[in-house]
Amino acid sequence: MKLIKSKNYQEMCAKVARIFAAQITLKPESVLGLATGSTPIGMYEELVRKYNEDRVDFGKVRTVNLDEYIGLSGDNDQSYRYFMNHNLFDHVDIDKAKTFVPNGLAADPEAECVNYENIVASMGGVDIQLLGIGNNGHIGFNEPCDEFPECTHVVDLTESTIQANARFFASMDDVPKQAISMGIGTIMKAKKIILMANGKGKAPIIYDTVFGPVTPQVPASILRFHPDVMIFVDEEAYSEIAKKCPDFEPETL
Ligand SMILES: N[C@@H]1[C@@H](O)[C@H](O)[C@@H](COP(=O)(O)O)O[C@@H]1O
User: Fold this and answer.
1) Which residue spans traverse the membrane (predicted)?
2) Contact of 178 with 70, CB cutoff 8 Å
């Protein structure tokens, strides 16, 4: 696992976007694993800029997203499908038929999980998977629990996640209580993984992820067992490590 510290959010987003642009340029038919949340928005902006200015070509790219809320349609502005269209897909020359997000309106969510796991597998593996991290260490919507979930599954969101997400909804009642998420096993199959975190609020969980025990109670900690993981943080998200491990030397890339 490599930990890469940037001065600020913009610098971090630029570094990650460069890696994605290189991936797409070197392998135009790449399978990108994509994430939502506020953290990757600046990275997607940079990628759109690279599409416009550096002519990064998304024409053959395929994408799979980590998760989706149950009960929200792709038209709902809080759905992750809407997020992806709005922040990336609408602004580049990607073929939307090659972009996949779990169907939050599936009549049978369990069957949708099996279907989605098959879609990811049929693409021949994710070349590079982007992740954010929840304050409790969740990745995708894999919440802290007793065992790492292997495959795409239905998740009951924790109270802390529901509260953290409430800021995006008109009222608490509107916040979905369930989601479909790739499993930890699905995520760990990606060839390369990049996790981004910024801001002081993420500092304790970044410390736990990098230095705490590997446990399903901190789902992101499993990433330490993946052979090719880069964690990108800004100074604020790094601050707990700086305090507790003053001799640790992060990379700067
Ligand atoms: N399912 C998403 C995660 O994929 C994301 O990493 C997390 C953090 O969001 P933010 O980046 O807004 O802090 O939020 C949601 O729970």
Assistant:
1) none
2) yes
Tokens of 141: 């919507």
Closest to 138 (Cα-Cα) out of 200, 195, 73: 195
**CA atoms of 202 and 208, how far apart (whole Å):** 10
Domains and CATH numbers, the chain: 2-244 (3.40.50.1360)
* Residue list, ligand 1 pocket, CB within 6 Å: 35-39, 66-67, 132-134, 140-141, 161
ipTM beyond 0.85?
yes
Give the pTM.
0.97
115: annotated active-site residue: no
Q: Say which residue the tokens 């997020």 belong to.
A: 83
pLDDT (average), residues 47-52: 98
Structure-token match 């499908």, residue found: 81
Structure tokens at 188: 């760990």
Two tokens, residue 121: 């597998």
Closest to 85 (Cα-Cα) out of 101, 72, 69? 101
Instruction: Provide the 8-state DSSP code for 169.
Output: S
191: which 2 tokens? Answer: 């060839």
pLDDT in tens, 118-141: 999 999 999 999 999 999 999 999
